[in-house]
Design goal:
Elements: E1 15-17, E2 24-26, H1 27-35, H2 42-53, H3 56-59, H4 72-85, H5 91-110, H6 113-125
Helix pairs in contact: 1-2, 2-4, 2-5, 4-5
Length: about 130
């Protein structure tokens, strides 16, 4: 959920800000994605957050620079703030992790792994 530009929107129960950003997520969502990165490098936590905020297809045509000025920039800035404030990373390290994740999304799509994964999920739901 993206809050207004001043972040004055009331945050619903069971939601928390993603660090000091204008993005709020549920406690459950945050623990799910950060739990996947436990005992990993800090950059892994950034990549897990991006996994939860974006679909691979959304990012296929994107670069870090092309996200500036788009709606996705709010989410990207929230990830950056989280990395800097909560994970004590520097901006260069956060940006590197974001770029690596965008590249891995593109590679997964080119190799057909995203489609195969979605097909497996569909068959498991039946």
């Amino acid at each position: 959920m993206i809050l207004d530009s001043e972040g004055q929107d009331a945050i619903p129960p069971n939601y928390t800000r993603l660090s000091n950003s204008n993005v709020a997520v549920t406690f459950q969502w945050l623990s799910l994605y950060l739990g996947k990165a436990k005992e990993q490098k800090k950059s892994c936590a950034i990549k897990m957050l991006i996994d939860g905020l974006f679909e691979p297809e959304e990012m296929f045509e994107e670069t870090l620079k092309s996200l500036i000025g788009t709606e996705k920039e709010h989410l990207l800035n929230a990830v950056r703030v989280f990395g800097i404030n909560k994970l004590s990373m520097n901006l260069t390290s956060v940006n590197r992790a974001v770029t690596e994740k965008i590249q891995s999304f593109k590679k997964a799509i080119r190799q057909g792994r995203v489609q195969k994964m979605r097909q497996q999920e569909e068959t498991q739901n039946f």
